[in-house]
Amino acid sequence: MLFNAGALCLAGFGLAGCAGGREGAPNAASQSAQNAAARRDTAPPPSHAKPAAAPVPALRPGAKVAIVAPASAAPNASDLAAEWLEDRGFVPVVMPASRTRLDAPYEYLAGTDAQRLDDLHAAFAAPDIGAVWCLQGGFGSWRLLDKLDFALLRQHPKPFIGYSDITALHLAMQRHAGFVTFHGPMLAQDLVAGKREPTESHLLAMLGGQIGQGAWIQPPPDTRAVELVAGTASGRLVGGNLALIAALIGSRHEIDTRDAILFFEDVNEALPRVDRLLSQLAAAGKFDGLKGVIVGNFTRIIGTNLEDAQAQSLLYPLVIEQFAARGIPVLAGWPSGHGEPNLTLPLGARVTLDTGRAALRLDQAVTR
Q: Which domain holds residue 228?
């Protein structure tokens, strides 16, 4: 079976989260449920200030899926990932570098830059490959950016899935390829590891086209999304891992946040470093013209002895300091990234953020 529809709580063409049929379940910092309902009816129409990324072909049952490792090595995980895909009705194609680990001092890489780049190009070029799925993150994706054949990618758009260090590839593809890519769970560190639902079902439904234009994406209520700055906003959804976003500032692959909804998350960061990363983006002008912000999972925050859900609230004052005075709506505690669950986000797609509803609306199709 392609996906577990029961885990998604789909209603008509919309995704209403997993709140047992409730719409817009309130969170601790939301206004009243009545006001949230009113905002749902008055959410702004999608903005058309900048062209949206093009939808990609949907992932069909029985399709071939390329397993790639553009960043760090996980050679023992390739076969487990292949089994996972087979169990869900897909045909895995294990690309060579995903079985490789280099010697020191480059032991963090899954094959040479040329090998990992060849895998990506071959996976996109092959007409019978239905999706390109990253095995894990780690380090090293940024080493491939200047040699990526974006013309080849534009000729063969297809779902590309990953997060964390894979953010470097997402940013470059959003800049130069022009199609939707998916900030979503990776085969080794999420799906084989059994990251909790609706991580898997939400991803497969989005890739398969069951979540489309007009759908509302809402986290499970126990994830405690928090409205830091109230409001609604529409724009292109951009972002990923905060450290990688900052690392590419000044390059030709840097993030374009104009008229956008910015999403960011991270892992193993200290609060002062998060403060510095946000300040770097502000100094680079990346918050000028920004429409809205979604703060994802921040896990294993250095220097705290708290559970992740409590520890990440410590960074909220840093976020409010950056965006409240600018009047930019902010929703925090969104469950995408290194925590659990890890909801898939379609980067490059036009969306509407409603902080009172604690939800995102897809304002375009992300697959076709």
A: 64-362
Let me know if residue 3 belongs to a domain: no
Confirm whether 197 is a catalytic residue.
Answer: no
Q: Which residue out of 30, 78, 141, 164 is catalytically annotated?
A: 164
279 catalytic, yes or no?
no
Partner residues linked to 143 by β-bridges? none
Of these residues, 254, 265, 269, 340, which one is catalytic? 265
Tell me which of 72, 78, 338, 340 is the catalytic residue.
338
Determine whether 307 is an active site residue: no
Burial per residue of 232-243, b for 16 or more beta-carbon CB atoms within 10 angstroms, e otherwise? bbbbbbbbbbbb
Q: Is 173 within 8 Å of 153 (Cβ atoms)?
A: yes
**pLDDT tens for residues 38-93?**
333 344 444 445 588 999 999 999 999 999 999 998 888 999 999 999 999 999 99
Total count of domains within the chain = 1
* Closest to 288 measured CA to CA, from 310, 315, 257: 257
- Span 19-33, pLDDT tens digits: 233 333 334 333 333
CA pair distance 239, 293, nearest whole angstrom: 10
Asked whether residue 9 is domain-assigned, the answer is no
